[in-house]
Amino acid sequence: FEFNVMVVGGAGLGKSTLVNTLFKSKVSRRVCHPEEEYKTPKTIEIKSISHVIEEKGIRLQLTITDTPGFGDHVDNSKCWQPIMRHINDQYEKYLNEEISIKRRKRIPDTRVHCCIYFIPPSGHSLRPVDIEVMKRLVQVANVIPVIAKSDSLTEEEREAFKQRIQKDLEANEIRVYPTVDNADNDEDELGNNAKIKERIPFAVVGSTSQHQVAGKSVLGRKTRWGIVEVENEAHCEFIHLRNMIIRTHLQDLKEVTAQVHYELYRHKRLET
Amino acid sequence: FEFNVMVVGGAGLGKSTLVNTLFKSKVSRRVCHPEEEYKTPKTIEIKSISHVIEEKGIRLQLTITDTPGFGDHVDNSKCWQPIMRHINDQYEKYLNEEISIKRRKRIPDTRVHCCIYFIPPSGHSLRPVDIEVMKRLVQVANVIPVIAKSDSLTEEEREAFKQRIQKDLEANEIRVYPTVDNADNDEDELGNNAKIKERIPFAVVGSTSQHQVAGKSVLGRKTRWGIVEVENEAHCEFIHLRNMIIRTHLQDLKEVTAQVHYELYRHKRLET
Ligand SMILES: Nc1nc2c(ncn2[C@@H]2O[C@H](COP(=O)(O)OP(=O)(O)O)[C@@H](O)[C@H]2O)c(=O)[nH]1
Ligand SMILES: Nc1nc2c(ncn2[C@@H]2O[C@H](COP(=O)(O)OP(=O)(O)O)[C@@H](O)[C@H]2O)c(=O)[nH]1
């Protein structure tokens, strides 16, 4: 049972930390080796880390791919190319397996089911590079934008920032996941998706260090003026992101990847 | 008595807020019109704001120039050009006045005495664009790098980040202000400058909103997990930056601009 996530964004936005946090957060802690922490890839290659986590009794092979050094050059034109290539390479692998005569009963699925795009917490609006990249990414995969290091925003700044980002996405016709127009969704699902769409981009905070708060041990960031708790919904929306991709929408993310994005790729490839 | 500061860095790094904070902080509050808040320039022009502040009984015309939209394009090659042009234009203005036959007794000084460069709090190291810009800026003006929005770093992350930045500056031979080798500095000044050099880049936080902390009204940022106090040395180094540019090193910043940077410009211009 594989689930593949890709994290995309500039260096220093907390991607590697969030990867570790996803593995360390409450449910996953039981199965993972907590000492095995993933460091930011130092090279320009795309690197993956894979762990088995247990979610409500279901074992899941969670693979997260990191994209180091994205958008950090003086000239970032085409910085999306290695990412697009990685996503399409997985479709190509799957297609070759699918059309081969001696194909395996169960095709190993390395397709990217969900692409988390990290927006820097500037407080203003999307940058040109964010728009350029997301515009292209949504055409080949499910994209969920998040506000990186959201602890650098006050609640008011966060709300205003989200409004502006949502306007930017709409103005540029960037359709992020979930797209609320799945004809086969029932009333409840559509209602849920509408609520999620209002909250996107999720304001996330990541951390693998534990601190004592009110007698409990929590994941968080300790500063001179307080402790930011990763799993406290009053502090950030990590829990919302995690529940959506690992629990409530995991199946849908895989289905949309297989039935929409992959099919589109397969269609184009078999036509040419 | 003019003192001209320029703030340089990407959008959303808190430059406008820091400009307002410099005007609002304890000493300045007496003279400024607190309602007159400066907004981020929406256009691509370079904009200045000027206020008279009172520092230890001395009235000072503090002018701060903001550089909007710096480095936010997909391709940022040559993003330093408008900034370099602005700095050199002020030298040109001064030179024309200086060499004119009917020149005024006191030449109005619009030369940039101090350039505050904002480094995003990535926690990693300097980005290529930071190195490219600072390399050029230090050749024409006094540059003081700061870590923007430093409340997004823990104390440990901040220390490690500063170490790496200092190494990057050294590796790229970027000599920021103060340069500790002024032959005419006395023992005390050299010692002081050495201490400052260890602290640079200053980890700053800016804010113009006031909150109650332990019965006092302080400038700060209010979050769910605590209040970041701008003028609390345990929280950030805003006070260090402010004291350095407005108090202890104001005279030196003006002198180095006039006797080193401007003289170099004048030399080149009169030779050609
Ligand atoms: N303020 C804040 N800092 C974070 C957060 N997550 C990670 N960091 C810090 O940001 C720095 C860079 O994080 P890293 O995960 O290596 O970023 P990456 O380059 O995107 O992989 C490190 O010092 C982290 O401790 C967060 O949610 N908030
Ligand atoms: N976390 C944090 N946010 C800040 C700080 N200073 C300003 N901000 C916020 O960052 C956003 C952008 O600030 P602004 O001053 O307009 O940035 P500019 O584009 O560089 O001029 C606003 O929401 C500010 O309230 C700071 O020191 N720390």
TrEMBL record, chains A, B:
One of its GO terms (cellular component) is cleavage apparatus septin structure. One of its GO terms (molecular function) is GTP binding. Transmembrane segments: none annotated. One of its GO terms (biological process) is cell division. Keywords: Cell cycle, Cell division, GTP-binding, Nucleotide-binding. Residues 1-272 form the Septin-type G domain. Belongs to the TRAFAC class TrmE-Era-EngA-EngB-Septin-like GTPase superfamily. Septin GTPase family. This is Septin. The gene is Sept3. The chain holds residues 27 to 298 of 373 of the full protein.
